[in-house]
Amino acid sequence: MSKSGILKSSLAKKYAMALTGLFLCLFLVGHLAGNLQLIFITGAEGQQAFNEYAQFMTTFPLVKILSYLTYASVLFHVVDGIVLTMQNRNARPVGYVKENGAANAKWASRNMGILGTIILVFLVSHMQSFWYTMHFGEIPLHNGLKDLHSVVLQFFSPENALGLVAVIGYVLAQMAVAFHLSHGFQSGFQSLGVRHAKYTPIIEWTGMAFALLVPALFAIIPIFLYITQL
Amino acid sequence: MDLTLKVWRQNGPQDAGRMETYPVSGVSPDMSFLEMMDMMNDQIIRNGGDPVAFDHDCREGICGMCSMFINGEAHGPNRGTTTCQLHMRSFKDGDTITIEPWRASAFPVVKDLAVDRSSFDRVIQSGGYISVNTSGETLDANAIPVPKGQADDAFSAATCIGCGACVATCKNASAMLFVSAKVSQFALLPQGQPERATRVQRMVEQMDKEGFGNCTNTGACAVECPKGIDLSNIARMNRDYLSASAKEE
Questions:
Q1: ipTM
Q2: Is B238's CB within 8 Å of A14's CB?
Q3: CATH number for domain B3-111, candidates 3.20.20.70, 3.90.1150.10, 3.30.70.260, 3.10.20.30
């Protein structure tokens, strides 16, 4: 076999998909921990704490390295996903007249591309709202720090004409994340060959718990911010 | 039983093909699906038509020849059976049954419901064997100790009959279940060890060359497999390929 064989093989694309996907699961945990400050520390104290956190996350060198790794993972996961999907389409140029996909596979597992696309659209809009504003946009200062806290609160506020739309959009996107994770988490382990009679049920259970809990906690935050500002 | 059959007709590989409807009456619930197909063909021939081409051989679920995508599922609605083991009692009087060939670019249609599955043969030829001399001086297999669990898993993998239901079912037309079963049946036994790394690399390379899709772990293949080949074989192949590629000099 040629030395570059592995890079071209279908399995290598799956390893890349799994590794980037599982890394992004870790990213979600970190991101969630940061976001939850918006609920647990409120008022002026919360504003100061969140803005200090945002300052730290955008300047600390180790975090910056991690964030570049995250951008790269998202990009790779998306491009790899598109390549895999196109190859899979080509593998069946003539489809079935009648196909009962629900008989043998879960809905999420059959629609990872669509779910991923929804998440990507959300991601672009989400980064434009907060990441771009924090890095390059015009942002008010508070105690000498960029006041991302106020930007977030304003974004999910009843006073904002699109505040409710933003909350609903966010919650819907989290549902897509939940379905994506419900298949993706355990699928990542399978692609890497991690399967064992004893441990696979634990991985599957953890994956389902992760898919339910993480997006649910993310979704609670904008709902909480909207309601408390009514 | 009276049935309406919607069958894919295609004169040859280059023909565009179309669905055609055939009413069949007097079907016994005890008939196998293939016997019902024979009955339909008999009717077509008596009417001066061209009978529907479909693959079949042993008619007892062990050869892997019969295919057919029946009502949206490989080998029809039942689990753990081939089409020859599917009986008409699984359907109701008055049912409309849609019958299509396996769909995959690596399984081109030869005629009607018969597809060319020689891509599977080429995957086997690329490494699905052990290189030992079998001319007379063969060792007794029982002389080599194999742990019971490992032997059981190897035999389970070896029950794959290469029918192609996994490919037909997979939304990506991936051949991972088939190839991983053929990799595993040797990877689990001492006799398979000398060629273990090159075998998995060559077979995966050939699988990709044949134009099968990529596995997305939907698990549909294992549900539809008439022999119950398990997804753990795919994980084993993923593992073996990774380790073989990492160790390659």
A1: 0.92
A2: yes
A3: 3.10.20.30
